[in-house]
Amino acid sequence: MNNQVTNGASKSKRISKKPQYSRFTQQELPAWKPILTPGWVIASFLAIAFLFIPIGLVSLFASERVVEIVYRYDQDCVPEMYRGNVTAYIQNSLTNKTCVENITVPKKMDPPIFVYYQLDNFYQNHRRYVKSRSDKQLRSAAYEYSTKECEPKERVNTTPVTWVPIVPCGLIAWSLFNDTYNLIMEDKVLDINKKGIAWKSDKNVKFGSNVYPKNFQYGAPIGGGKLNESIPLSEQEDLMVWMRTAALPTFRKLYGKINTSLEAHDTITVVLQNNYNTYSFGGQKKLVLSTTTWIGGKNDFLGIAYLTVGGICLFMALNFILLYVFKPRPLGDPSYLSWNRKTVS
Amino acid sequence: MITTTNPPLLIHPLAFPSSNSGMSLDDAQIVNDSPQVGFVDLGSKRVSHGSRQGDVDSERFSISMSHREIDDGDARLVYVNDALKTNERFEFAGNSIRTAKYSVLTFLPRNLFEQFHRVAYIYFLIIAILNQLPQLAVFGRGASILPLSFVLLVTAVKDAYEDWRRHRSDRIENNRMSSVLVNDRFQQKKCKDIQVGEIIKFSADDIIPCDTVLLSTSDPTGVAYIQTINLDGESNLKTRYAKQETLSKVAEKDRIDGLIKCEKPNRNIYGFMATMEIDGKHLSLGPSNIVLRGCVLKNTNWAVGVAVYCGRETKAMLNSSGAPSKRSRLETRMNREIILLSVFLVGLCMAVSVCAGVWLKQHEDDLEILQFYRKKDYSEPVVENYNYSGVGMEIVFTFLMSVIVFQIMIPISLYISMELVRVGQAYFMIRDDKMYDETSKSRFQCRALNINEDLGQIKYVFSDKTGTLTENKMEFKYASIFGVDYSGEKTNFEGEQRGYYIQVNGQVWRPKMAVEVDKELLQLSKTGNNTKAGKQIYDFFLALAACNTIVPIVVDTSSPAEKLVDYQGESPDEQALVYAAAAYGFMLMERTSGHIVIDIQGERQRFNVLGMHEFDSDRKRMSVILGFADGSVKVIVKGADNSMFNIIDKSVNLDIIKATEDHLLSYSSIGLRTLVVGMRELGVPEFEQWQSSYETASTAVMGRVGLLRKVAINLETNLEIVGASAIEDRLQKGVPEAIESLRKANIKVWVLTGDKQETAISIAYSSKLLTSNMSQVVINSNSKISSKKSLEDALVSSGNFLVSDDQDAGGSDCNTSPPVALIIDGSSLVYILDTELEEQLFQLASNCAVVLCCRVAPLQKAGIVALIKKRTDAMTLAIGDGANDVSMIQMADVGIGISGQEGRQAVMASDFAMGQFRFLVPLLLVHGHWNYQRMGYMILYNFYRNAVFVLVLFWYVLFTGFTLTTAITEWSSVLYSILYTSVPTIVIAVLDKDLSRRSLMTYPQLYGAGHRQESYNSTLFWLTIADTLWQSIVVFYVPLFAYWKSDIDGPSLGDLWTLAVVFLVNIHLAMDVIRWTWLSHASIWGSIIATCICVIIIDVIPVLPGYWAIFELSSKGSFWICLLGIQIAALVPRFVIKMVIQHCKPSDIQIAREADKFGNSLELTGQEIEMNTSRR
């Protein structure tokens, strides 16, 4: 009757009516109450084992099928005379960087054969590095000046105009990998197709077709490769690949694809330009030729991991079977209750 | 004194269970000793009626508080009918009230200010500010502020909604109209405009707008009836009095000038102290002269009063503050582990920063050349270091940045989740229809929202007796009249004859409550005054009907020809007696200050009330001086047995006295409350002598109460015994069963009561607290030395009974030794508590299965609770219903108030309130167990959930040159604890049930899980941490090895880690869910789906570096293989350990769950015991 009275004590009194019954308020919603009985435990271990062992085998098999040639050239390609002072060699633009080596194909390789370069100890995931890029600038010419995030490679003092933005700006683009490879087999040049090595999404959306390199690698120090200023960024696939920064300090990046098959014991002559400076940080450079399967490149890890997990589960299933046989416990046996144990003892 | 017997032992033949005429003698008189003076006046009975008595009444209050004489400096001066002058010097609050906290303008700053009182938010804020420094900017601006602003926004919206509702109710409240005297005429005025000093007139059923001192009422004797249900929940009518001196004044005509000097506003709704100066006279005012805001005027046509406290200074408003805050045991423990987590956090950050320092030192010369470092910035005219300030500073920056990156190691979201979960749990507790009290129509109330989980770990229950174990609804049972016991067969008029009734003006009046009557007695009572037995019965029931302070109120019923007589009074004992008298044909019809009308077997008789000596706790009796129609005068006295037998004339009727004593003994042994009635005819000289001294005493200015008491003592002598009544204070429904359940759950129930030892023991027997196989240890001592000796003896003897330690004492069916019950009284406790004897008492008490403390004062109750709290880790719970339980309720870890007969102070001080004692069983065994289990699991899960994510981030940092790059996008990092994983943990913690209600109620022993801290302990914490470490390693390193030397890019691998970790923590939770309702399914699988959607959304934003990564990633088989492998490999160890423990060392809960599922009983059959024994 006196609902309007504001008083802490009264409010609680006012609403005093029997709570309406519902399965929700009484916490009696229909529910599935699974209990892991010995049968279920064993069954789940076996299920995992029988799922994982085949997957592991298939993965391992797939990985085994991959043929991979890895050739480290950063040491070999430094001429003897410069071995003592590698930095001087690599930083001098006048030295001859051409290097010729032979590699042998161990097994038949079916096309497409992917040509990668692999860098070790290169922290493309370094905080300073990953942040030093402007995705806006890459996408559209309208954002040419949004280079704020590109420190410390933001703009450059050119003549006659001072302090113009670099396109593409930032450390990532600046350090573009610039070793080149030419493969020759039996005096014939093996065609390395450099189209289609970047993600389609990068070509279509992320890198603008109206954005042209400007003031790129202008003045010292020069970090890496140069870009053809007449080709829009959306066509510069090497840049796109490079700018997909690697997750880990040892990484490969796609250089191109070979669409002919290589037979076992074929010898390939690699003519490469050893331009990129990895010597300052003790990094390694490798050329990789690899086929792929559904699982990707050559990597036994997943297969072995699956086999291990599957094996452990199989082992656990056996253990549990033994446990349940030799030390059975009836489900819901009251003699295991703490208060019953106490009385009985 | 130590006795060791099996059945209850009565120590002294004259020591009858207590009985009293006060509403609760035991409680009230004890309160007298306590500092809570304010409550005295409620507890003890006000017998006064009419203005003269009102004076006596208020005088009593003022004298009882004379040591607190109002100091002029502290006083508030109210000039009656002169609001201007009143408010001139003092700034008294106006009557507009404002429960709303904010206005539109102040909302933002004030709400933010209040929110930042929490440590958690400060932590958020500091992290967010750190992140704004350019050196430390780990996250983008938006991502770093999002979590904080999200939490702030949610809380602000909630606060704003609540405040809007308060605004609305304030407006309604402030704009009510009331009639105020302006220029000698009563005018309607808005409630909010009332000022202190103004005279206000109320009509019947008006809500009083402010605290007012009554000046006059429509009743010629100045009585006003008010209902205080809004204030303290009591529904019976209370009487308030206007002063005789102001009674005759008519506000419109006589200009009332006066000055009221009263206390500063305070929140004691049962105390008021003031003096009024009017026409040169000094009057003292007490609580009976003031009506408080929120009360309703009833049965009174009008009343006029002067406002003394307005608006926020009214007692109702001062009392509307929230419940006291306690912190739960689990949370205290959790905070310890949070400190550990902060140590981990600092450790991780140190590791990262030191490694970063070493790396920088090693590469210091190359930093300029490194393509991925580039120390110098060539974009500026002056080539300077870019973001590099030397190795030392870099270490510091790295440390701070890693704090930002790893911030969720401290699970701040946990605090918010816990609050939400508690709200959810409270919702279910309030809505539980098994805790709804039909009789008082009250639901369970959660007044404190932060100790829900403590309910699952209670070890000691301290219970009040009256009103908690018993109903405090007195029912007349037996009578012993002149030595004849009438405790025969009862009839209750369910059939054609519905109790006694009388005809008044063609209407049928009947008592509101029917009482079962004794057939023989009823027959005899109808024979009238003629036979000897009839005369005796006449005297007895006349005494019952007359010697009390009950006010009969006639209530309309649905049929116009029938009216109900409702006996209003503050003492349930007296109500019971008057209803009993009415049932036997002695119906009290009318009471004014000067006379009473009693309808005796259809014949209306009028008696003059010549005087009344009200109940007090020293005399333990009350008396009334009645003038009969034939001119004779009798004094009728009613009181507690021991006080009455001292003043009864033992020279005559010795056999009757003896018989009565025997009857009282038998009544008390079945737990009835007894009262003895005596009577004496006064001769003319004696009457005149009494009258003159009574007049002198009641008009005395100083020491009125003491004088009156002396007069009473002189008068109450040489009485002739009339008889004794036995009233049953019935046990509440289900109390014995509840106590049995609690005992099985290994919860010790201690009863702390103000009652006498014998009553307490008999109630303990009937409530199955004491059983016949228990040995009793009784301690009643009157000095420190004897207490000490008693304790030592008791320790020795109790030690003899005990073979095993006290842990087993709770196991009811342990047959090794009889459990021991300790019975101790308040006077012994005086010498024990707060002295070195405490330790011995504690040891003794912990040896005992049951402890009964009788005659204890409220502060002693708190002292006993403190005794346990100080010495053990055990959780304590106090449950009570009266003002005398307040201190105990506040002292205990969990305080529960019974919303019963004795007002609401207990409820107001409590953390939880409920209608019946027996609800303690579902509350503790079911809700407490669930709450504890859910909260314990949630805390551990939240630690795990956040730590596993932080560790994944940490492992990656080791592969980035220690530079705190996160492969996981910053948006995913932020959303991780807000969206990806937050909902399921809350839903599961609110809804999951480890066991069904039925199992928990059937096997109270399952409650032991909380005692053993099974859901949260250091072992579990460290196991969780170890599990976390393993899982984070799997989540991180499986993709790392799978994609090592591959062309994977950062955002892709980040997406894989995000999805893997979110799937993992949700599946981890799913593994531990016990009951899968549709809500659990929806929240867990919904979170996973929501995460996928969010990851996709983040990856279709072209300006983020990870554009399209998820699609490229998921198009390769290795992604799916990784994702599946991570889940299984991460969870297998946990699964194995869980299954091994479940099989080899199953917890009680596990077994009960299996039994529940497969339908077998948990009782051991004989055969199983044998098997079990032989196996060992």
From TrEMBL, chain A:
For region Disordered, the annotated ranges are 1-21
The record's annotation in InterPro entries points to: CDC50/LEM3_fam
Q: Which domain of life is it from?
A: Eukaryota
| One GO location term (cellular component) | endoplasmic reticulum
Annotated compartments: Membrane
Q: Which UniProt keywords apply?
A: Membrane, Transmembrane, Transmembrane helix
Hey, which family's this protein in? Belongs to the CDC50/LEM3 family.
Name the residue ranges with Polar residues bias. Answer: 1-10
Task: Report the transmembrane regions from the record.
Answer: 40-62, 304-326
Q: List, alphabetically, the Pfam families matched.
A: CDC50
Q: In its UniProt entry, what is this protein called?
A: ALA-interacting subunit
Q: What is its main location?
A: membrane
TrEMBL record, chain B:
Domain spans labelled P-type ATPase C-terminal: 907-1146
SUPFAM superfamilies the record matches = Calcium ATPase, transduction domain A, Calcium ATPase, transmembrane domain M, HAD-like, Metal cation-transporting ATPase, ATP-binding domain N
Q: Which CDD domains match?
A: P-type_ATPase_APLT_Dnf-like
Q: Where are the transmembrane segments?
A: 143-161, 338-360, 395-416, 943-968, 974-991, 1020-1044, 1056-1076, 1088-1111, 1117-1137
Q: Which UniProt keywords apply?
A: ATP-binding, Magnesium, Membrane, Metal-binding, Nucleotide-binding, Translocase, Transmembrane, Transmembrane helix
Gene3D superfamilies documented for this protein: Calcium-transporting ATPase, cytoplasmic domain N, Calcium-transporting ATPase, cytoplasmic transduction domain A, HAD superfamily/HAD-like
EC supergroup of this enzyme: translocase
One annotated GO biological process: phospholipid translocation
**Residues involved in Mg(2+) binding:** D464, T466, D881, D885
The answer to whether UniProt assigns keyword Nucleotide-binding to this entry is yes
For this protein, what is the EC number? 7.6.2.1
Q: Where is the active site?
A: D464 (4-aspartylphosphate intermediate)
Q: Name one GO cellular component term.
A: plasma membrane
Q: Where in the cell is it found?
A: Membrane
Q: Which residues bind ATP?
A: D464, K465, T466, E574, F615, K638, R673, T753, G754, D755, R855, K861, N884, D885
Q: Which InterPro entries match?
A: ATPase_P-typ_cyto_dom_N, ATPase_P-typ_P_site, ATPase_P-typ_TM_dom_sf, ATPase_P-typ_transduc_dom_A_sf, HAD-like_sf, HAD_sf, P-type_ATPase_IV, P-type_ATPase_N
Its Gene Ontology molecular function terms?
ATP binding; ATP hydrolysis activity; flippase activity; magnesium ion binding
Catalyses which reaction(s) = ATP + H2O + phospholipidSide 1 = ADP + phosphate + phospholipidSide 2
* Any Pfam family matching the protein: Cation_ATPase
Q: Answer whether the UniProt record assigns the keyword Acyltransferase to this protein.
A: no
Q: Which family does it belong to?
A: Belongs to the cation transport ATPase (P-type) (TC 3.A.3) family. Type IV subfamily.
Q: What is this protein called?
A: Phospholipid-transporting ATPase
What organism, scientifically named, is this protein from? Answer: Deinandra increscens subsp. villosa
Taxonomic lineage of the native organism: Eukaryota, Viridiplantae, Streptophyta, Embryophyta, Tracheophyta
